[in-house]
Amino acid sequence: MTRNFTPLPGAGTGVGIRILGPVEAYGNGAAHRPRGPKVRKLLALLAVRAHDVVDVDTVVEELWDGAAPASAVSTVRTHVYHLRQELAQELGVPDVHCVISTEGTGYSLRTAPGMLDVEEFTRLYGQGRSALHDGKYDMALDRLDAALALWRGRTLADVARGRVLAAHATRIEELQSRANELRIEAAMRLGRHRELVPELHRLIAIDPLNEWLHARLIDALHRCGRRGAALSAFHQVRSVLAEELGLEPCEDLLRLQRHILSGAAAS
């Protein structure tokens, strides 16, 4: 499927790849989702290992998950051919061999700076983390907002992950979680507690056992002057942890409860 697409400001030229959501390639004002599931998985594998050589054995393992046919190596060549053809025809790329190159032991995806969303996310995440460490909270919030805005859903949302892709997706999603935490920390430092409450509710709905998120929600509610709501949120997470894991809340949560019950002002 091909559609019109406007790249982000500052992106390079040539073919871009997006994997923070459904997998697609874009270029020359158009975006294209590779048609076949194995061709799409091949592009995903090359993207998570961009600029490295992905050897044929790794491609075979990922595409067939340990049950490769005798013709697997030749079939990989066919999939690479079809992927190149799609990029050339749907995006009007003149020299696709510069984008997906054949190396001695496999294949490599080469994209210009700013044209691979996961690389751009990692770059912005690093800038936001450094700014937060340096006490530049507005800059940190700006960079982390920009990083998280690149996500369009679950990593590789339309690809069946084998062992190799699953490991890369887990690493990328851990970075997303950390970026969310740093963004929340920056916003808290800037006193944006009321703005954070709905966002924290949303994140907790996705990850209900994350005690760090629950603690930030309770703290934000308390800082907004909503002590009753803060205590209610504490009792809710206590119930969830007991029912799901048979655990008591962590010390961070217990400390917040004690602080609220003592009547002390939020500091």
Features:
about 270 residues, alpha+beta, three-stranded antiparallel beta sheet, 10 helices
Q: Which structural class do you get from the secondary structure elements?
A: alpha+beta
Strand order within the widest sheet? Answer: 1-4-3-2
Task: Give me the strand/helix succession.
Answer: EEEEHEHHEEHHHHHHH
Query: Roughly what percent helix?
Result: 55-70%
Biggest pleated sheet: 4 strands, antiparallel
Distance between the termini: 53 Å
Shape: elongated
Q: Could you report the average pLDDT, rounded to the nearest whole number?
A: 92
Portion in strands:
5-15%
In brief, what are we looking at here?
This protein has 267 residues and is an alpha+beta fold. It is 58% helix and 8% strand.
Describe the structure.
This protein has helices spanning 37-48, 56-64, 72-91, 117-133, 137-148, 163-189, 193-206, 211-223, 227-245, 251-261, and strands at residues 2-4, 16-18, 24-27, 30-32, 54-55, 100-102, 106-109. With 267 residues, it is an alpha+beta fold. Helix content is 58%, strand content 8%. The termini are far apart. The mean pLDDT is 92. It is elongated and about 70 Å long. The strands form 2 sheets. It has a 4-stranded antiparallel β-sheet with strand order 1-4-3-2, covered by helices on one side. Strands 5-7-6 form a 3-stranded antiparallel β-sheet.
